Amino acid sequence: MSQDHSALFPENLPIEPEKATLEGQNKFFGLWFFLGGETVLFASLFGVYLALKNSTAGGPASEDLFGLGLVFLMTMLLLTSSLTSVYAMYHMRNHDFKKMYLWLGITGLLGIGFLACEIYEFAHYITDYGFTFRSSAFGSAFYALVGFHGGHVLFGICWLIGLLIRNAKRGLNLYNAPKFNTFSLYWHFIDVVWVFIFTVVYLMGKVG
Amino acid sequence: MSSITATNKRGFGAFLWDYLTTVDHKKIAHLYLAGGGFFFILGGLEALVIRIQLIKPQNDFVSAGFFNEMITMHGTTMIFLAGMPILIGLMNAAMPLQIGARDVAFPFLNSLSFWLFFFGGVLLNVSFLLGGAPDAGWTSYASLAMQSPGRGVDFYIAGLQIAGAGTLMGGINFLATIITMRAPGMTYMRMPLFTWATFITSVLILFAFPPLTINLFLLMFDRMFDTAFFDVALGGNTIIYQHLFWIFGHPEVYILILPLFGLFSEVFSTFSRKRLFGYTAMVFATMLIAFLGFMVWAHHMFTVGLGPVANSIFAVGTMAIAVPTGIKIFNWILTMWGGQVTVNSAMLWALGFIPSFTIGGMTGVMLGSAVADYQYHDTYFVVAHFHYVIVGGTIFGIFSGLHYWWPKMFGRVLNETLGKVGFWFFFIGFHLTFFIQHFLGLMGMPRRYWVFLHDQGLELGNLISTIGAFAMAVGSTIFIINIVVTAVKGEKAVADPWDGRTLEWSVSSPPPYYNFEQVPLVRGLDPLWIEKMEGDGTMPPGEPLDDVHMPNGSFLPFLMGLGFFVAGFGFIYQTDYTMAYLALYGGMAFAIGCMAVRSVKDDYGYYIPKEELQKALEGEAK
Amino acid sequence: MTDNSNLDVKDSESFRRQKSKEEMQKQLISFALMIVFTFIAFAMVATESISRMYVIPILFIMAIVQAGFQFYYFMHMKEKNHEMPATFIFGGVWAAFLTLAGLVVISWW
């Protein structure tokens, strides 16, 4: 195991360091395929939600619960975090490690902001309306769908923090560039799911 | 940590450690076959219990409750813990070799996939020792599963959730492997049919398993945390479970059969010494089956009351699948037509498959007719149908594949005499068991009942069926004896015992741990055959001789599987004991901690020096 | 290496930077459009200015366009070497469509 791995630390990184190695290519394809599967996963949850959204069992309905202000704020936070992670990837391709870190850090903070809003929102529903995942089938479906998305955001944030810590001293190289790239793809996908959640759950729920 | 050091000292401890830490696709294939084989025996014993109970009217061999556990565990075990793992084992063994790759795309994940399957399967089966196995049928419909007392169904949920995660990873792994790691010249339309089938099966796994994950998740929350997805009093809807289950479940049956379609294509063309008839049609027929397979799930739900429009659409879709399947049957027959056919054990299983599977396909079309299905639904006719496709297709295929690739996987040729005797026992037993069940079903015998009554004309049929089941057990036992006999004094396999056509036969049996000293250059379909006809019979190298990069072995996948296993117990028991949260959080934390360890370390793998490969090449030349 | 080829490298480097700048611009434009779409969507619902018949399809179309921006511009799915990712995303969307159809259209009681 004494071989050197200098190939992974070239003097000049290639233009797309995330796809320069076979491992990087594999990670790139593997994550995209995973997202294809995730599409079906969220579709199942959306389907359950749509099938059960009128089953309120006498409890609060979507029109009574949702406030658009907070959801708009959450949408802006997550959309912006999507753009900041685009910036991070832009700087990765220019091999600017520091700027990449800066933008990834902002992405993580925006994600935490989003999550904080969501926790506040859930707490609000539970304490002020007594609306929990046990109150009605609608409640179960709502918390399952939005909670699954929130869980994905939480996972993404943990992933990002792990990446930032592990690579802080390593700098950008061919071994870890694919890791940043896969994270960014995952993060965009979470945003796509949120676009459908705010449309289907909140806006359509408000329209009735 | 590399596999070289482990093979040098051959103690049992070292041997075990080697397998616990391996990331080599060939060894993971062995693990899958061993694990799947073990569960196959278990599922087979459960089947025998079912058949003994039904040998005569109003038998009291087992109680009604235990009978429910038997039918549930037989189905669940055979599909999730025996069928799929053995198929994934065969894919692991053959696919990377067939495309000229040194390993799969994610060797570490490959090992994790196996251990998740293994621990999921063990979790499901320890339920027998802990107050009763799942008893709501392999489908575990919510309306029934919500009522099931005890923890059996909770074990079903936790076990399948863990095993399912492993399968999903395996699917993604194979997809990435086939897309990025084909040898030079190996274009998509030059891939062997088994590789194509692996690819398309992986697509099915990728899109079909998420609905199952969600479904199990919903059932888990309803049973363990009192949510209301399926609680009608709070507006829940149990039909959702049926839809999600069959959106997964129907592609699942194609996951079980498509790899074998690929395998049979290889076997027929190899033992007919002819190129596969209609290669392109075969590839597109496989794709078409997979595509249509996603759009017909509601034919399992004709009697739910979806209405005539929905039922008609799904009936037509179902019958449409017979077209691509028919294309395949005819192509196999035409492959043999005019070929130099060798009938050995592998070929016997393949020949037995054609009529058996065709009968299963025809009853499938009968069941696909929504009107007629009201008559057949939940009778033994359905039982006969799906055993004809799953045993006549999947199990026959697995036996054929084991005979075909055994020399490549283990370096010894399975005994032909025992192979043929075993085949005839199994084949005749299979038809005895299930053919008569068509008629039992038409006479009105419902499935899943633990007794039937006197004087309803069902006695003889059930007796014959039970006798057949024992003949199948004898056939399977002969195969196990064959494995032992072969291991003890089997004939050593040469690199190419069958005069093969594809790349796996161009390397020694068993292959070196790096597969290819130099990745081969592929000049067309059936690359090795081309070299035999037009070249010197060996594969030309597709790259200069150089150091070969290999992944390091790791014990972490095993530990992660163990962590999730413990967490599974935590989930199951937290409803009754607060202490169980310790297992839940502890197990999760342990598994995630292992992930963190894996993530923080830079694992660059190691290189096999050029000189070692040079030596191996010279050894082969002699 | 001759001077000539060095020049080529430099040229291609500046060409690439130019390209990625343009790419960045496109991404910014799509981001701006996404913000605008989101704003319109929320405004439509908040003001209740349009009847339900029209609001839901419009909301849905805007969501799909936004998802397209994410996939094609932010996740680079329009670039080459993304055929397989695109195939699998569309495969997932197809399976998702079927799942939704099953649960929404033919699921009652």
Secondary-structure map with pairings?
The complex is a heterotrimer of chains A (208), B (622) and C (109).
Chain A: H1 22-52, H2 62-65, H3 68-93, H4 97-129, H5 137-167, H6 177-207
Helix pairs in contact in A: 1-5, 1-6, 3-4, 3-6, 4-5, 5-6
Chain B: H1 3-8, H2 12-21, H3 25-53, H4 64-98, H5 107-126, H6 142-145, H7 152-180, H8 193-225, H9 239-271, H10 279-293, H11 308-320, H12 322-336, H13 345-368, H14 370-376, H15 380-410, E1 412-413, H16 416-442, H17 459-489, E2 491-492, H18 527-534, E3 548-550, H19 556-573, H20 580-600, E4 606-608, H21 610-621
Antiparallel strand pairs in B: 1-2, 3-4
Chain C: H1 3-47, H2 52-74, H3 83-105
Helix pairs in contact in C: 1-2
Written description of the protein model:
The complex is a heterotrimer of chains A (208), B (622) and C (109). With 208 residues, chain A is mainly α. In chain A, 75% of the residues lie in helices and 0% in strands. In chain A, α1 (22-52) runs parallel beside α6, α3 runs antiparallel to α6 (177-207) and α5 runs antiparallel to α6 (177-207). Chain B has a single domain (24-546), classed as Cytochrome C Oxidase, Chain A, CATH 1.20.210. Helices cover 68% and strands 2% of the residues of chain B. Chain B has 21 helices and four strands. Chain B has helices spanning 3-8, 12-21, 25-53, 64-98, 107-126, 142-145, 152-180, 193-225, 239-271, 279-293, 308-320, 322-336, 345-368, 370-376, 380-410, 416-442, 459-489, 527-534, 556-573, 580-600, 610-621, and strands at residues 412-413, 491-492, 548-550, 606-608. In chain B, strands 1-2 form a two-stranded antiparallel sheet. In chain B, strands 3-4 form a two-stranded antiparallel ribbon. In chain B, α4 packs parallel to α15 (380-410), α8 runs antiparallel to α9 and α15 (380-410) packs antiparallel against α16 (416-442). Chain B starts with a helix and ends with a helix. The model of chain B is unreliable at 1-7 (pLDDT under 50). By secondary structure, chain C is mainly alpha-helical. Chain C folds into two domains: 2-78; 80-109. Chain C has three helices and no strands. In chain C, α1 (3-47) packs antiparallel against α2. Chain C is flat, with a radius of gyration of 21 Å. The N and C termini of chain C lie far apart (76 Å). Chains A and C meet through α1, α3 and α6 of A and α1, α2 and α3 of C.
